[in-house]
Amino acid sequence: MQGITYGIIVAGGSGSRYGGSMPKQYLPMGRDGRPVLMYSIDAMLAICRPENLRIVIAEDCLGLWQKLSKSSPLYASLKIVCGGASRWQSVHNGLASLPPTTPGDIVLVHDGARPVVPPEVVHAVAEAAAERLAAIPAVAVTDSLRCLNADGTSHAVDRSRYYAVQTPQGFDLEMLRRAYAAPYSPTFTDDASVFEAAFDTPVTLVPGSPENIKITYSGDIERAAEILSGRR
User: What distance in Å separates the CA atoms of residue 221 and residue 175, rounded to the nearest whole number?
Assistant: First the structure.
């Protein structure tokens, strides 16, 4: 049964690795100078209706978001949810803000700092989540990898067995809610790890994209803008 597609954008990070006084998701990007977060919102609005999208931001950034979004009725109308002290808590808060679940509903959880996720990745995740209950985009690791041992030495590992995981990550909404109802664990690194801790259901990998970069370090915004410009 095809249900409703919901979206949660997690944008509560401080951007400490990026540097600067303003969190990275609010910095201007591209020719029009819109904030990084707005591009991430656009990507999600391609798959879910505005009323079904939640933007999770830090409480101390509420005023900044209101200032940035006031010129756009669409962005200003979106439902804002206050984030928590961790990504896990922020997603938990986002899920709690969604209406009661109906059979077939899915939710896509996306990083606010991934502004140039290709539309085909978003749609592939949504389709796989609707069919298989849990789906995440991933790309093969191309760098050589080493594992750090307890004594400080390291050893090589077979990189063909490893994938780098991206967002959005898609799930059956009711199942993800149940997964997030369990206590937090430091082993949770993303939504898929929370889901896997609660269910035996396998998480489906769908092809991600090298273009789906996460704004993390200085220079990443310029790179993302170049990717976006190349699509036009």
Answer: 35
